[in-house]
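Final report, Chapter 2: Outcomes

The project's central promise was a pipeline that accepts a single protein chain and returns its three-dimensional structure in a standardized token representation, suitable for archiving and comparison. That pipeline is now operational. To close this chapter, we reproduce one record exactly as it appears in the project archive, with the input sequence first and the structure output second.
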Amino acid sequence: MINDLINNEFSRNIGFVSIDQQTQLLNSKVAVVGAGGVGGLHILTLARMGIGQFSIADPDTFEPANVSRQFGASTNSFGQNKATTLAKMVKEINPQAQVSVFPDGVNKENREEFLKGAKVLVDGIDFFEFETRRMLFNYAREIGIHTITCAPLGFGSTLQIFDPNGMSFDEYFGTSEENSLIQNLAAFSSGLSPRPYHINYIDLKKVDLKNKKGPAVAPACTLAASLMATEVVKILTNSQRIYPVPHYIQIDMYRRKLRKGYLWLGGKNPLKRLITYLIYRKFKKEMVN
């Protein structure tokens, strides 16, 4: 059955990945939490790359406002659960794919089942759902799973990879259980975007912290999915060196900026701590007003 897939559906992958590597991908499981703007495209890109097994989690449903950047959103999917919809789309790409669906999301009670058998955890969670993200990143580290986050920012994206034997989520972002949610969101924001190129052109008046909404565009999600899928292939096939945090990549297509950086000391970096403080003040002001 796998040979048929390699000779047909995924034959054009061969040449950039070997037959043995494509076989590895088809036999590998990736867990994706979040199936909306960036998460949905993560899932579809991985499916077309030939990942053969998935866990997909998202408690949300599609609505008209999702059409601008969520690739599972259409008039046919409005009102439908995002995880269930994306699982169906994966099966339409590869009927042999094995997909476990978690339409109620992931929590401490089902996280073990969600990550069972997965070799990589891919982050597609909404920016504001910090506690779920932190819980999953830390648990994945405990059980020895690589985690990838690619944040769509403006017309660009960032890439951060977390090796279970390397710097932890809290160490890199400077977050902790003792911090308030606003403090953790500020620290998370500064760690995602050490070079905030998008600040040059974003209309900050359109960022609504109280209602957890902000501007997002489809090209950023597409770029994020491309960065993520490439790293997943490298991890699963052990074919190329990966650069986990405090290394990062940041691209802004609108401003033609590319940065391959190293955030020295992670969350303890003096400049990052200053930026975190400034973001915190901004967030706190917005939440109060």
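Archive annotation: The chain is about 40% helix and 15% strand.
This record, like all others produced under the grant, will remain available to the consortium after the project formally closes.
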